[in-house]
Structures are given as C-alpha cells and as structure tokens.
Amino acid sequence: MELITPVSPERDYADKKIVFLAGPIKGAPDWQAQAIKDLADLDVYVANPRRENVRNFNLDLQVGWESKFLALADVIMFWIPPKETDVAGRDYAQTSRFELAEWMAKTNYNQTHKQVVVGIDDAFFGKSYIVKRLAAENVPVYSTYAETLSKVRSLLKSGGRVFFTSDTHFGSERAMTLSRRPFTSVKEMDTSLILNWNNEVASDDVVYHLGDFGDLNVRPYLHGKIHLILGNYETDALKKNPALRTELEKCFASVLPHDTLTLKNGEPVYLTHKPSECKRDMFNLFGHIHGLRKVSQNGLNVAVDANHFRPISEDDVLFFKNAILNHYDYEVFL
After folding, report:
1. What Å distances lie between residue 122 and 87, 135, 148, CA to CA?
2. Distance, CA of 299 to CA of 278 (rounded, Å)
3. Cα-Cα-Cα-Cα dihedral of 87, 23, 18, 137, to 10°?
4. CA dist 221 to 56, 198, 200, 283, Å?
5. pLDDT one digit per residue (tens) for the chain, 334 residues
6. Roughly how many angstroms between the first and final C-alpha of the chain, as a whole number?
7. What sign for the dihedral angle of Cα 191, 253, 65, 155?
8. Which of 7, 64, 120, 328 is buried most deeply by CB count within 10 Å?
9. Residue-range domains of the chain with CATH
C-alpha cells in the first residue's frame, strides 16, 4: 500500500488501483487512519484527504486534489461513522453527503467499472433517507465499518480485463470541431474522456489504443496498461521528429504500427488504425474514421466517437463480432 495525500508530490499513479477515502473529517473520528492500516497488505494506492497540518490550508488546492483523485480512483469508499464532536455552524458530514450524490450520479449507480461503496453507521441521522434512495437503484448500504471495508477489499482485488479505443485526440480543438463532439471546450472534452475512461478501466486492466491519442500529458490521468497502435497523427509526427518514439515508449507499454491479438475465446483479431489497412482473412478492430461507420463486414470501429466516448470492452467486441459475422444482413453494410 502506498499513501497519497494532498501534499504528496506529483507523479504517475496509473500502475495500480486507487481507493479514495471519502467520508467526513470535521467532527468525525479518524476512521481514515484505521482504513489505511486495514488496506496496508494490498498493492494499491490509498488517497486520504485528511490533512495532518491545517495551518496553511488552501481550499482551492484541497478541492482540486480531491476532484482529481476522486476521478482517478477505482473504488470510492464512503464510510460515515458516528459523530464524535460538534462543529459550530456545520452539519455533520455535509460535504460527504454532497460528494456521495455527485459520484453515485457520475457512475450511474455503479453501472461502470468505478465502484462507490457506501457504509453508514446506524447512529447517523438521515441514514434512512439515503438507504431508501439508494435501494431504489439496488445499491447496498453497509451498516458497519467491517462490512464496508470487506467490500472495498474485494473490489480492489478484481480486474485484469482488456479494452479497446481509438482517436481520443486529447487536446485537439480540430478533432472536437470537425467531429462535432458534444462539448463546449477542449477542456470539457478532455475531462469527459478521462472520466469515461476511468469509469470503465481499472488500473490493472489493459487498453489497446488504436491511434491518434493526442496530448501525451493526459496519459498519467488514465487507468490501465496502454498499448499504442500508431495512428496517422503519430506516424506523421514521427517522420518529422524520430526522437518522439522515445517519448511514446515512455508513455505506453508498447508502440506498434499494428498487432494481432488473441481474444479470450481463442480467436485472433487484427488491430490497425485505418479501415483501409484491415486484413481480408481476419476480423479487424480499427479507428481513424471517428463516428462515421460503426461496423464493416469483417471489422468493428472502436473509435470513441462511435462508442459513447469511452473504451469498449473485450466482451463488447466479442458481442459485435458474433453479430457482424453471424446475424447482420447485407443491408447493415451498405
């Protein structure tokens, strides 16, 4: 276990899962210290927003840090213990209740990879309302710290899936404009793509990015071990500056012009950037054309514009592969 706090130095946290300890601080016992001890045997990052020294507290920096690591986290642990002390002018756990609502909404009640684990002690006033609202969405609320922690630990131990994506074009106003992406700014686009990615992909998952990644500065904010298939933007940039390959190889687990991967059902799939470079005798995954076409007679477009601006899972690839080869008729491909 490695601890992340608001005063930790900037670094890349993409190599393993992150759990964020999102519960009350003011007026609450230091339950975060106990959680850190109880997670110490796992190879994960624990993001703890509690500061030991609050003399130089900066609200903007604190909120920025919390927003960043709530977005990066694979698991958000909400534990609301009994109130220990009163805080003048403040309702107990008022910020935690707001964050709980925010992140349950952002994760569509846990219908994504990112999981929100909720535990509330029976002594907390207002618990019954939260339980009733979450029960309508089939979200359990645990009554003890031990139950909450057990669920968190089980989620942190799972993972190891495979995803595919393409044409994120991080930082590109041109891509946002010409593809008519539904964002008001490049910043909003990048933020949404990062959040969508991390909602699907865990830190120990694998992602094959089929080219045109965009701004490499975004890489540290993305979960998973990423393999890059070169897109036309990377290929053109490498022709102008061959030294760029060193930077790409630092960012990605591998950098290849194309690749062949065996899916979990034992069947091969060819990974390439352009549809024109697909193999006739194999099933292909490609990008490049953004959202202009979802499927071909022997391939699937994994670009973000064709897939709700998020990576597509191996299970989804197998679903569409079966549909394309065995069920879609000729009209689909006209």
Report:
1. 20, 16, 13
2. 8
3. -150
4. 27, 9, 14, 31
5. 999 999 898 888 878 899 999 999 999 999 999 999 999 999 999 999 998 766 677 888 899 999 999 999 999 999 999 999 999 988 999 999 999 999 988 888 777 778 899 999 999 998 999 999 998 888 899 999 999 999 999 888 876 899 999 999 999 999 999 999 999 999 999 999 999 999 999 888 999 999 999 999 999 999 999 999 999 999 999 999 999 999 999 999 999 999 999 898 888 899 999 999 999 989 999 999 999 999 999 999 999 999 999 999 999 999 999 999 999 988 888 7
6. 53
7. positive
8. 120
9. 2-156 (3.40.50.450), 162-333 (3.60.21.10)
Nearest to 22 by CA among 7, 41, 13, 35: 35
C-alpha distance from residue 48 to each of 25, 36, 70, 186, 328 (Å): 10, 8, 11, 30, 50
Tokens of 91: 């309702």
